Amino acid sequence: MISFTGQTPENIAYAAELLRKAKRAVVLTGAGISTPSGIPDFRSEGSGLWSRDEPLEVASLNTFRIEPEKFFRWFRQLASQLFKAQPNPAHLALAELEKAGRLKTVITQNIDGLHQKAGSQLVIEMHGTLNSLTCSQCFHQADSSDYLKPFVEEGQIPFCPECGGLLKPDVILLGEQLPQDAWKAAQQASRDCDLMIVAGSSLEVLPVAGLPMQALDRGAHLVILNHSPTYLDVRADVVLYEDVAEILPAITEEVLHG
Ligand SMILES: [Zn+2]
Hints:
- The protein is α/β, with parallel strands linked by helices.
- The protein has helices spanning 8-21, 61-66, 68-84, 89-99, 114-118, 145-154, 180-192, 211-217, 244-257, and strands at residues 25-29, 105-108, 123-125, 128-135, 141-143, 167-171, 195-199, 221-225, 238-240.
- The model is unreliable at 45-54 (pLDDT under 50).
């Protein structure tokens, strides 16, 4: 059992109370919820895979189109980490809350599929998914299970079974639009919710970072669980600068068994 100090126990209790009272709670998760599962934050500059040996440009739609080998070389390292990753206690806590009817929707900026692996049912993936690939020529969509293993293990670049074109992982690269359906669903969920919990997101990547504002504008409560400050801390009911893999299970425990 982790023991928290300072204001943390009171804040946990208050966050739990807001969750218990909420009828339509929504969680917005970012890279911070998956770093305890060993996944680097691939979209933010200065951290994770970006800062190693490749410039930011490599994860862009442009690189995929112009230098696909370069793109896939970079992507192989990321895919191999995603392929092996397991959900951590923060993912499991959210799945438990959903199962208990305390949480309606998870909106995530992550592409790792760990919420689903943990058992969450209603997950809106803002930056796409590794579970499928789409042909860049004929738009044939393929399940990634046939391609992921040979790609990760042997570096086999995926080609379309229909036309031989390059298959692009359905993750949103830099320079790409967000998936329209996901964006609409996320906006709807944010406008309808009476409580939004931000977990492991520094709220730096627009337009997703604006979703909590849409919730606040309609009178929802806001809880922020992140290791560092965000631009909305001043408007939040509760802010906890803690490890989400510790704090979310603690809040969940309080909601379900407190
Ligand atoms: Zn094709």
